[in-house]
């Protein structure tokens, strides 16, 4: 008895287009600058001491890095202190944001997604990939959904073999 099996790749024939959010991940070193190290007794920022630190610190160490500026201590930190840091970091860093590492990733992904040309996805059945080696913040999935919904025929999350429907245009 001879058994002949024809394996058919239904995923390949489905016409689904897979979009990997990791493609919007900008390569580069991320640094969280925690202002807590500049606090007097871990409680407050003393202007004179802080200005002296800012003046003599070598900001070139942050060249081409993505920087999140934050304070992890429960302390009084005036807005001008963050502004001063941003002013010193901006000439060196690729990006400076206020917040933690998660905020930094959100800002980086959102900026990259904002530059994408959505016309290539017009009337396509899209699957936004849900797994991968690059961590993708939920905010990136939200941004992609907002940007692609007006042009896509349908939008799904997951892998082509196992998707969760998000949106389907009614023609």
Automatic annotation (TrEMBL):
Domain of life where this protein originates: Bacteria
Question: A single Pfam family, by name?
Answer: DUF2480
InterPro entries referenced in this protein's UniProt entry, alphabetically: DUF2480
Its recorded name reads DUF2480 family protein
- The species is Mucilaginibacter gilvus
